[in-house]
Amino acid sequence: MVSIIVPIYNAQIYLGKCIESLINQTFRDIEIILVNDGSTDNSLSVCEDYGKKDSRIRIINQENSGQGIARNKGISVAGGEYIMFVDSDDWVDGHIVEKLMDSLSGNGADIAVCNLYRTVINEEKIAVKYEELFCDECLERGRDKNYVFRISSYPVGKLYKTELFRKTDFSFPAHFFEDVAAIPILFAYAGRISFIGEGLYFYRNHPGSTTSDFNKLDDRIKCLYTLVDLFKRHNLFGQYHDEMEQYIGRRLKINYRMVRRVCNSYCKGFVDLQNDFYAAYFQGNGKLKEPKVVTWGSYNLYTVSKIIMNSEPDEILQEYYGFQSIISLMNKNSRDLNFIPVLSDNPFRKMGIINDFTNRFLQKNIADFQDADVILIDFLEERYDIGLLGDNYFTLSDAFLETQSAKSMKYETLLRFDENTTRLWKESCGRFIDLLMRYIPCEKIILVRMKLCENYGVNHDGISGKELIAYPEVKKIKEINGLLDLYYDYFVAKCPGITVIDHLTGKDFYYTSQQFRHGCFPWHINQMAYSKISEMILQKLHG
Fold this sequence. Notes:
The chain is of the alpha/beta class. It contains 19 helices and 21 strands.
């Protein structure tokens, strides 16, 4: 049986939709534990009405104690072998319990996780940024302990074995942001965690949500103290020290951004509180700082940048330059191609095309990048042919070729595998390197040898038995990857002293997720690959 715990406080407007989504689950062996946490509206009456209709509903009424304590009460009375949490203003897909159970039992996991969707007032679906790319896969503690702090700490959208709560003597703290403090300890004890690459939980974001209240500053710090204390109490602090340091650094950065957006006058005192905490546990290495990452390369590298910086997409885009070949970058004799209209319905792709046509990377003045903490580069965009219009070169990316501009323009095509194109690339790359070396110290440059995936699949963990499938065009992919290797080798030989992230394609994690949200193509990988590459980069950055 699955025990579904719903903490409730003044949620009468949304509660009916929440409960309806639970009683109509395709998996029928459930109990629904509704914990009314001292609501002052008609939430209790709503619970009682549904309790009369469905015998699987259990109602607990208590004085207002907070969401964490309400969840604890539900855990203490849960009779199921599995536990799931749902917030009272959210709702779930009718198959969520069934699919999480199938994933958990099919992979021999202790926790199963699905994707979440954030909903706004008009209930338009928007993927939650923390888990929007998770595909069907499984993580095992013995193989990768980093996942403890890589998975979002939302309690919802997950199915847990009840025994995890019992053997850890688990309880949520009473303060706000209790999930940040408590949930990672469950991940640390889980032998295996499975993921579903499907959005099954609908998270409602509105002004009344507890997570929308940015004024509880003390609790934002308190939850981090609680997190560290929990790991110390379980004798896990030393084992997870480095991973926790990175995780807390990300949390500090998120908190700082939230406070800065709401009330800039709070920032100084808030930063002092956070730095005091960091100094107490991590030798004072964690002064709050907004790292600057400049990214020149593929969408994969853009995604890695988001993970490294834990930033909003709009922030990353300010320093992201994609859909561009080095040939195009270094050969704009008439300065730009502004006279060509760029018609694209995709803002991300449109911006990439405009950057290529206008050469924004160089127009911005590369000397401005000297204050960057790191410059990430890959050559995956070098798989494209090159266009020549007059004396201007531009990149024949798929983003450009799908536009009306591409259909109406008359230009010459330089084939990527032509010897003259290779010669032009090397000459252009030499000038690009000279430009970088003039302004950017070698230690700030990280070259990520990103290549096309030769395989795709749903899962490949050595456990599930699901094999990867070779792309039908794998022969062509290998040819392109061979050319990319030539480019990477050339760059490394000319830039001694830079950091190189290498040996990716030989790893078992380097494949395309069959459920990748932008399509199953060789130039996409999967969420775990993004995370692992991010970790490789962070390890290099931190020495």
